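Figure 6 in text form: structure in, sequence out.
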């Protein structure tokens, strides 16, 4: 360590927090921070050695935790340099693995500052050595661009570029319109266009977040499944993260939806007949585009890290999370559940904006929201941050019947105490469009919503 470097140009706390977070949860944290910092960005030698070692272990497919890292350090003779107590110390320095990428950003920024100072020093030296000013300026520009290249401010659009950028966007839109490029629309006519009993939900833009909120057993998962399948059929790669339902049950629901075979029959008899074979034929064109991730017990940081991996593998154009509030929270001192959930909501929004993908997030309504006649995004359970961060909020209301629901023929459809199949779908918030109510029919046995105008069909 250079004693001449002032404390403003490095952060012991940030560097140790990054290393400690990786040791606590390498599977989640290392993919996040490895795209932000390199070993050379660490000023503290002990942190640089451990980080470089963990990257090598990751590349070799080896497990990374405090025991395996200590063992590798000992075998390579580096434990004396790092220090016997360092690993335990840095694990205690990490306030939350959720913020590892934030601390990595601090480490990277400090490294950039040091690099800029080094570049300035080189320029002063070269001036005295007689390097021509033109050559000196060109060399300095290359060095400075290299310094900030990996973390350039992608959110900046210079004023001089705005006219050309917008013209290019409009040209791209003309091409999309001419080629009939698909958009991420809602699958039901009632949520596609404006009109009587209709609300126009605009196609989901990259970087936006939509929330669907409903009481338990109102059909929010089926609602999201319908949307995910519609997007997959439109050619988009969709990752459906589900905290509760396992893969087999998700695919049973899908087969019941597309074949019409009751799920009880699918489960009990292992049905393979013309109905299921026909369903497979109809699903085949888009089935490769819809990916299911059973994430029971995961933190939101783990979900987003895995989603980032899928994005880099080009198998994620849209993200579905079923449902918010079921993720494992990363508790830390003096922080309550509401704040932790708010942090997770913010993390989803940041992920969408950074990766340029839309997210569809499911949420439960609070007790007050369940009992309210008019459902609202304000009634989402535990935190208002989900509603606040969302560009689109949709609520589903299927009241519990006090009286039996009968057909005109007198045939009983729904018994008292069960939810009505007529669902009020309220667009409660839409930052780029209208709000209002419409209705869909919920076919419980087939786990699907459909247009009231097409009640007799799939």
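Output sequence:
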């Amino acid at each position: 360590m250079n004693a001449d470097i002032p404390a403003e140009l490095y952060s012991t706390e940030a560097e140790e927090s990054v290393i400690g977070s990786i040791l606590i949860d390498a599977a989640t944290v290392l993919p996040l921070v490895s795209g932000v910092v390199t070993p050379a960005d660490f000023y503290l030698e002990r942190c640089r050695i451990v980080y470089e070692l963990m990257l090598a272990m990751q590349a070799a497919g080896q497990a990374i935790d405090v025991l395996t890292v200590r063992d590798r350090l000992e075998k390579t003779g580096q434990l004396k340099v790092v220090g016997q107590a360092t690993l335990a110390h840095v694990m205690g320095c990490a306030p939350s693995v959720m913020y590892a990428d934030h601390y990595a950003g601090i480490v990277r920024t400090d490294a950039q500052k040091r690099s800029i100072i080094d570049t300035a020093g080189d320029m002063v030296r070269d001036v005295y050595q007689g390097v021509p000013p033109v050559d000196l300026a060109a060399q300095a520009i290359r060095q400075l661009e290299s310094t900030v290249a990996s973390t350039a401010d992608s959110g900046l659009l210079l004023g001089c570029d705005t006219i050309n950028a917008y013209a290019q966007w409009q040209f791209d839109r003309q091409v999309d319109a001419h080629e009939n490029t698909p958009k991420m629309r809602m699958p039901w006519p009632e949520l596609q266009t404006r009109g009587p009993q209709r609300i126009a939900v605009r196609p989901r833009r990259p970087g936006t977040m939509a929330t669907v909120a409903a009481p338990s057993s109102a059909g929010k998962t089926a609602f999201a499944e319908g949307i995910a399948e519609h997007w997959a059929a439109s050619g988009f790669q969709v990752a459906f993260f589900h905290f509760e339902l396992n893969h087999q049950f998700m695919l049973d629901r899908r087969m019941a939806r597309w074949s019409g075979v009751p799920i009880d029959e699918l489960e009990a008899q292992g049905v393979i007949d013309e109905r299921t074979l026909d369903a497979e034929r109809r699903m085949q064109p888009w089935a490769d585009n819809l990916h299911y991730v059973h994430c029971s017990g995961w933190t939101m940081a783990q979900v987003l890290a895995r989603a980032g991996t899928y994005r880099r593998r080009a198998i994620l154009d849209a993200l579905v999370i079923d449902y918010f509030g079921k993720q494992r929270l990363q508790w830390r001192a003096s922080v309550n559940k509401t704040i932790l959930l708010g942090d997770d909501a913010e993390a989803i929004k940041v992920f969408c904006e950074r990766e340029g993908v839309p997210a569809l997030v499911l949420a439960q309504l609070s007790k007050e929201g369940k009992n309210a006649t008019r459902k609202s995004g304000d009634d989402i359970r535990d935190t208002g941050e989900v509603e606040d961060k969302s560009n689109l909020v949709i609520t589903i209301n299927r009241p519990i019947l006090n009286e039996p629901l009968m057909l005109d023929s007198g045939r009983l459809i729904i018994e008292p105490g069960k939810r009505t199949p007529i669902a009020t779908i309220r667009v409660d918030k839409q930052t780029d469009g209208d709000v209002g109510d419409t209705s869909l029919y919920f076919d419980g046995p087939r786990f699907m919503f459909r247009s009231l105008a097409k009640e007799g069909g799939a």
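Caption detail: The first strand starts at residue 209 and ends at 214.
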